[in-house]
## 1
Amino acid sequence: MEELLEILEELHPDVDFMSNERLIDDHILDSFDIITLIAEVSDEFDILIPAEEIIPENFNSAKSLYRLIEKLSDED
């Protein structure tokens, strides 16, 4: 989780990613942020995020994104 938080904080240092659970809904993360996140997460965690997993529910909070990372890591 720490690595993910570092990636997120590089995008938006002013956001509390541990408590915010509406990153997409509140327009904190935009489409460019999502593309950047997908690339960074793929590199950092050595996973591929399939298109069907790129949905708001998976990117609305650091916790939900980390659950997706764990799920994809377990599938390898």
Note: The chain has four helices and no strands.
## 2
Amino acid sequence: MSARQHGLALAEILIAMALSLLVALAAASLLHASNGDFLHNGANTRIDDSGRFALAIIGQSLRQAGYAGEPGAMAAAAAPTPLPVEGRDAAGVASNADGLGDAQPSVNGSDAIAIRYAPAAITGAEGGGAMLNCAGFPADPGEWAWSIFYVARASDGIAELRCKYKGENGWGSDAVVRGVDAFHVLYGIDTDSPRDNIPNLYLTAAGIVALDATLPASERAVRTHWRRVTSVRIALLLHGERGSRAGNLLSSYELLPGADPAARIDEASLPLPMQHRARRLFTATVAVRNQ
């Protein structure tokens, strides 16, 4: 083989190798893009399912808030009647404390809400088990049951919306959904006299405490504005797995626009592994009908 022929053969080999590398690079790019789409779609599906489930559980508990039992039940005659709804801003909850207990550090300023009701006195097939706490367990007739929602970190560091309840052997706390960025609550107050059960003003828990502070100390327990709560607005921001959102842009999320400036999440302020994730905001307003 002449030097010219040898050079041409070498050039052909190099060209073939270059084309093979280009094809491999294109295939790898397509695979990477396909994997990103798979992660994004899967994360959004899981976020959607989790958000809907969380709203359903919280909504069910709120619709039971303040129910005092069937006529003739011990709970109906109990005095004083506990607050149907009570909350705290930017606070966690100790899982083994009584009720809300002392305020604990919060996750991204998330709120906590406690809901109380008395189960129906009817038992058996007619109505037993119809009223459940946030963990899905029925409470004994004649007792005031609890459903407390707050955000805490699991043992692996992932934040989750938790449900705290009082069982037969003491207090329990179970995860409702994982992957929670923040949970915030507003309370609709009926300020009319006489009351018409229609909220005129939405306030944070701190706002209600401030209103109560204007009442004479001897009347706060009876006239507390917590007993004027006729609806509750909840906002829940959930995130997906790492790498579930493409691009370099960072987003901001207003959980309760115009109502609570503290209910805001900026991705730029989050740890790097928590940025660039699929996220979705879930909101709902639930009437409290049993006041």
Note: DSSP finds four helices and eleven strands in the chain.
## 3
Amino acid sequence: MIADSARLQSEALGSSLGKSQAYALMAECDTRDLVNIAGRLRERTRPEKIVTYSRKVFINLVNLCRDSCSYCTYKKDPGEAMLSLMNPAQVLAIAEAGSKLHCTEALFVTGERPEQKYGEASDWLQSLGHSTTVEYIAEMSELVLQRTGLLPHTNAGSMTKKEMSLLKETNVSLGVMLESSSERLMGKGMPHEDAPSKNPRVRMKTLESAGELRIPMTTGILVGIGETPEELVDSLYAIKEIHQKHGHIQEVIMQNFAPKADTGMALAVPPSQDYFLRAVALARIVLHDMNIQVPPNLTPQVYGRYLDAGINDWGGISPVTIDHVNPEFPWPEISTVKSVTERSGRKLRARLPIYPEFVKGGFITSERLKHAVSLLADQSGLVREDYAND
């Protein structure tokens, strides 16, 4: 058994770990050893010891949604107090506030195709001169880019190739969370039973189409919503295989499920700290040199330990807006994140909503976006330190 464990650990440090070995690592490897392997891999692929984050504003454009996930409080219904149907003036006001505080990312988040379920959403879009949410996002991305210089990044759920082509004109990157590749979670009584867009085949089609369009993509796993350890491994490999084909997945978010009041999973047991730590470490081992993020606001007391488990990014942090998806978890102060990062012997740097290797990798074809990026980035592709620290 000891020999088998040593062999598994040796294989994990290689670049061609098979899925069966990954299953075995998750099942058999001691957590300390798993974290050690992940940390060694991160140091090997990122010897510069930089950990990044994106300084952003969160633009909650419309939070009506055709889907109903058992763990979600982001979705609102017509008439609710926290319903968001933002007009251009409201969007611009948030972006301008972010610009004054040297944010570089305008994160547009919406519910999944609300106009297909709610007359209120359809009427709201029609009043703004649009028939779909994506059309309106395109207009608002244009407005923010022109008036503030913030770089748009959109997370609007599953999208068609045509829709992503439209957003590519003004967005330096897009995002869609895979959450899980397990179709079992679509079954009766499961988290995605009433969320057809969370069908993993739909989500992976979006990621594939983005790859064909050469759009840098953010995706990720929601850990602890009822998946088995084997399904977690399968999800990581699903992402890895798409990225190996197209080379366009710029980051993978490892997000821990946290039960929320007034949801179908309010009484569900969240993943243990040990299970989530193992999941994060395994992500580094499976995904090897890809960018891996853990949002610090969702594990406020212990997020520093994920640096040891191989992550290299903290995701978006806003000095202006709340996390509208997880409003009960406030962002940490950037100065605090900097201290936590530095205590691990690493340096915190601000990045754009497009990672440096994608800035330099020919993914931006629009001259206008190239110019907007050049005003904010240094030669490494990260945010100029004189701007980020001003």
Note: The longest helix spans residues 229-246.
## 4
Amino acid sequence: MLNNKKLIIFDMDGTLIDSLPSIAYAINLMLKELNKEPISLDRVKDFIGRGSELLIKRTLLNRVDVDGIEINKQEFKNAHSIFLNFYSQNLNAKTTLFSNTKETLQELKNSYKIALVTNKPHQFVNSILENLKIDSYFDYILGATEDIAKKPAPDMLIATCDNFNIEPKNSVMVGDSSNDISAAKAANIDTIAVTYGYSNEDIKALNPTVIVDNLAQIPRLLNG
């Protein structure tokens, strides 16, 4: 099912790294600066996944579904700036690797091209990877910028395949949420969904190609 793959594309937060504590810490520093009540780790978990802009909008409105809801642009801009400042100062304070991340990347590196595609702002990505000592495993790293639509749009994944001149059918996306699965399906890329990530959705309902409980399962799935 996953034979003949040449490129493995990984999501970052909730898949390779547990960044939730660091993000929540920066969010609550922001809220304190704005004289607002703090929110729980689980609440921040509900809000993350589609980039920092949506995270801040959800936080300010204290709800997940914010589509069509207007928010004061100046308040949002100020809050987003404060969050980015606090997060940049605390990127690595509470961020750790999930089980078997480094070992799995090491094993896959011997046989495949390895890419990282994340909705986290691009300027933060390298520092985190370097601090966790996994930056050397990636042949290509793509974080969120204003130039390309974020997941669940397929654009970032298509750009990654194009970078290697590898067809989507010869690639696989590893992620923890509907953003990853939907983006990959739209790009005609097979998917591996992890069960331990940040998504509150039923992973099975997303119909990924394969579901795993641990990254260590991936190499033998690919070698089938």
Note: The CA atoms of residues 124 and 197 lie 20 Å apart.
